[in-house]
């Protein structure tokens, strides 16, 4: 039996506990169907990793391997694969119903895999898939706007949490697509980051939105992408969204939302979860491959840049615990990436 290194867990513990993430030796998987077996070169860490790992009364009988974002090299393909071959360099965000990417080798359906940008290292590429897919799907598929260059001149988009992982790519995509981008950030360094990545204006999400928008000449915004605490910002979003505007959020709520606040303005509200397509094997699942390939093209053309801000090596339990702890602090900018076993 061939084995491989991996980082996983049996118990769901605080990240300060040394057993919250463990270095493991597990069986190396084999591809079937449309699966690719990818040798993992780099991974990045996302808030969803910390949410899944967070303390709960559950014990796994076999190790749970976390991780979604990855960049690596195809080493073997399933019999039904038609788009990739061994040796291809790829990047992708995986699925939340399969074992994760924090392992030397990983199985992924080829329909949600894109070619790695040629101009980026594996580490730089690993920062992009989950956030790019989330931002792209939110703006095009949920809010209904085009991401083609200049397509949204005269349309305002408020991005709440513009300096985080998804915000860092959403500001770039929205700026390229011609939106007037209003990002939110609460610290000098995050305000600067949001501006550098395409925000035309930056307001503070810890303060009321309306007076800050009025100060930059806006009575309302045409669309809102909420990437931070839907609960906390719900009333503010309802207040500043334009009549017939659209709101999309990627953050689950801990309370019931009062949708009636949107009724008088005929406002559309949508959720975005990047894992929906792979989880439910939707007929348009391969759209994620297409999106990632277009992101790679735009990166290689110099129109989008990686959002990696920190690079740790090797990929092991100690470094992943460090990355989880930093994410849980709520003060990270961009993406934390790990490379090499």
From TrEMBL:
Q: Does the keyword Metal-binding apply?
A: yes
Keywords of this entry: Metal-binding, Oxidoreductase, Zinc
Where is the Enoyl reductase (ER) domain positioned along the sequence? Answer: 16-338
Classification via InterPro entries: ADH-like_N, ADH_Zn_typ-1, ER, GroES-like_sf, Lipid_raft_assoc_Zn_ADH, NAD(P)-bd_dom_sf
**Which Pfam families would you find in this protein's record?**
ADH_N, ADH_zinc_N_2
Record keyword Lipoprotein present: no
- Give the Gene Ontology MF terms in alphabetical order: oxidoreductase activity; zinc ion binding
Identify the CDD domains for this entry: AL_MDR
What family is this? Belongs to the zinc-containing alcohol dehydrogenase family. Quinone oxidoreductase subfamily.
Q: What is this protein called?
A: Zinc-type alcohol dehydrogenase-like protein
Biological source species: Alicyclobacillus vulcanalis
